[in-house]
Design a protein that fits this description.
diaminopimelate epimerase activity, DAP_epimerase_DapF, alpha+beta, isomerase, binds the ligand N[C@@H](CCC[C@H](N)C(=O)O)C(=O)O, about 270 residues, Diaminopimelate Epimerase, Chain A, domain 1, globular
């Protein structure tokens, strides 16, 4: 089975081409491919599938390192745009069919951009239940801590916790939040430091993975949440441990969040199952 290893700001992927509709390897084998010790190693497998809508370039599925499915993956979508551009299937722009709906992809002079869905902040969209909420956000008791956070669906669930200093973020809270009954589908947990109205620092502990070097949908969620609170401008530069991403959203209810950044080819290989 041919594969391509890629990364977007350190968030790394194994890309499989199943646009011919051939069946996917079983889930335990996908998790084996993602294993960093005994497999190829990646945060997610990004699987190209046949287009679902007339005019779309291709569809895709996302499988996390632990073998679970995800509804969206911003950096993975950018890497697929780069893969399809190299393949000749995507010229300057085109639509990809993601599990969460259409994603508009664009080749930039430097890097690749995708327009993910419009952010959703309501509890059923996350999904999230049993938390106390007011206009400034949500609260949950986690052990001895009263955790205040924002919640955003980007097609996948994100908790956004604002911190004063990113290097001192209480990342150990993430595991408890991820398995908390308040989030029946689990969640990705982002810790964000607002440096200025146009510059954020972010760390994300991903569902089904652990801490990643970058999370595209997490960057969109952090930007959208802070913009929703009136605390950032329309565009932010977001520094993650693996590099810089850009997020753009002006607050329109149906307006997609745009995510930009690098998409890098690492190597090609063959997996023997
Ligand atoms: N790395 C991704 C997000 C991948 C999916 C996530 N772990 C989930 O389970 O929702 C990104 O760039 O958005």
């Amino acid at each position: 089975m041919r594969f391509t290893k890629m990364h977007g700001a350190g968030n790394d992927f194994v890309v499989l081409d199943r646009r011919d509709g051939s069946p996917l390897p079983p889930r335990h084998e996908l998790a084996h491919m993602a294993d960093r010790h005994t497999g190829i190693g990646c945060d997610q497998l990004m699987i190209l599938t046949p287009a679902q809508r007339p005019g779309s370039v291709a569809g895709y599925r996302i499988v996390n390192q632990d073998g679970s499915d995800a509804g969206q993956c911003g950096n993975g979508a950018r890497c697929l745009a780069a893969w399809l551009h190299r393949d000749g299937a995507l010229q300057r722009e085109g639509v990809l069919d993601s599990p969460a709906g259409p994603v508009f992809a664009r080749v930039l002079d430097e890097g690749f951009e995708v327009s993910l869905s419009a952010p959703r902040f309501d509890a059923p969209s996350i999904p999230m239940t049993g938390v106390s909420s007011d206009e400034s956000g949500h609260r949950l008791r986690v052990g001895d801590c009263d955790v205040r956070f924002g919640a955003v669906s980007m097609g996948n669930p994100h908790v956004v916790i604002e911190v004063d200093e990113i290097t001192a973020a209480p990342v150990e809270l993430a595991a408890t939040l991820q398995s908390h009954p308040a989030f029946p589908g689990g969640c990705n947990v982002g810790f964000v430091q607002r440096v200025t109205r146009a510059h954020l620092r972010l760390r994300v502990i991903e569902r089904g993975v652990g801490e990643t070097l970058a999370c595209g949908s997490g960057a969109c969620a952090a930007h959208a949440w802070l913009h929703h609170q009136g605390r950032v401008d329309e565009h932010t530069a977001i520094d993650l441990p693996g590099g810089r991403l850009g997020a753009t959203w002006a607050g329109g209810r149906e307006e997609p969040v745009r995510l930009s950044g690098p998409a890098t080819f690492v190597f090609e290989g063959t997996w023997n199952s």
